[in-house]
Amino acid sequence: MKFHVALSPDAYLQLDDVVSTRRQIPGYGEVVTSGVVTEVVARHEGAAFGSDVFLIADGILPATVQEIAEVTTTRVEPECYVPPRPGAVAIRAAGADRDAALYFDKMDARIPAGIGRDGEPIYLNLEFLDGTRGAHVSISGISGVATKTSFALFLLHSLFTSGALGGRAVNAKALIFSVKGEDLLFVDQPNTRLDETLRAAYARLGLPARPFASAGFYAPPLPGDTTGRPHVTGRTSGVTAFWWTLAEFCQRELLPYVFADVEDEKNQYTIVVHQVTSRLRHEAQAAGNDGAVAIDETTIRTWAEMIEFISQKVTDEGTRAHWAGPAVGMGTVNAFVRRLRSSQRPLGPLLRGDLSTVTDRPVTHSIDTSRQQVTVVDLHNLPERAQRFVVGVVLAAETDRKEQAGPGGLLFTMIDELNKYAPREGSSPIKDVLLDIAERGRSLGIILIGAQQTASEVERRIVSNSSIKIVGRLDPAEAGRPEYGFLPTSQRQRATLAKPGTMFVSQPEIPVPLAVEFPFPAWATRLSEVADPTFTTGTSPADSNAGGAARPDPFSKLPQTQSDSWFDDPDDGAIDEPPF
Fold it and tell me: Rounded to two decimals, what is the model's pTM?
């Protein structure tokens, strides 16, 4: 499974080069053994001690410089596993020989993943991405250096524009959760750094150097705003605000996602959560067209009012058995109420019954992936608890939709910081949804593209079910974890030094991960990179909605007047009480 190649003085091999050698076997004919260089060593033959190098350099001690390359076998064709003969000629594989060594010739549909060290394209087998033989992608690396998000977007661009999907590209969608600034709100705009050199890099991979042609953008509503404007600052149009009405919250049984921390499942108050969820589902009635609900002749229009209503029902002696359960003690109820009250601030802007959804210009407040190829959901302005709520609810809704629609379309779901939503220890509603996608998502057409800094902190079943594993720059301690056992020793060491844009890609057919470099994004990754900074509209069809993006109130950040009693000393030393 490994062999070594001696290099003549006028030849060289570098890491990741593809090498092949041939041998005649009676009864089989010519057997070709191919592999990838995983180590190269140069040494003096004839030197016994390290200090002999000085004597050799002065011509006193005779010695010969010799380079030896270690080659890890990737393919033996035909499958007659005999070692190459010593003294046989080995060549650097190119063209059809290189394609055969890396199984590219066996890929009916292949996706460009980047450029190899030899300057030639590296491909992924689409069958391990679209669910035919496998699915899901795991991308690991240090934040800000490993370029995980950039590579994931490049992979989506390659999927949609390479032609490998064929007719299925029409029904192939991407759902992207953005948690780091507004960088992904400009993927439909050309990058100012797009020059001829960058175009040539994309052309070498057979891809067009252009932004995503069909993209829709969603952001949470501006806190304290009653018109449903999205909370964004960089992009002034083309963004739709999303939220859930209280009527939807009750009917779709979304309360468990409010308690989405992994520690929540370890507590007894989860019994109360499910009991209250059932009561809301059966007793809440829609009140008007703004999403409000009526329960026991009480109209509820805000999340704060819903919290107060539920708290009263589960603590009142007359209704506690009906709403919290007949055998639940007050200690458990109080724990539930404390946790529920702490959700008022993070979830208040997302759970609304005070925004009308029936107007002269209908407002679309739900995240809809069917209207464009790429859907970006911006979460960076939300607290972490609200981010978990959105991810869990949206993924659960998409899973239900795919189950009802049946096979036929593909939904590539990209989630950054996956260890936050599916940690190794504990359980939560979101983790259950992600596990469901990882284990049977490919049969539904839902493909998970998960990015995380540390794969060792992500649920094992999610990582193990990922057919494609990709590693960028790694922390040295993380590189030693067993989750990276698929990397040879030399690649583990190189991963701690990898520069941005270099990734190590592992796929089932090729025993050795391949090092690739992918081109700089052809789409803008921040407002300063937009080719036309004066653009006023995006390609999102949501522009026709009244929820189009608008800047926050310019007067909201003006300093307070001197007449305010607390102007000189804004900190009065008081301890905030809920709801903070």
Answer: 0.86
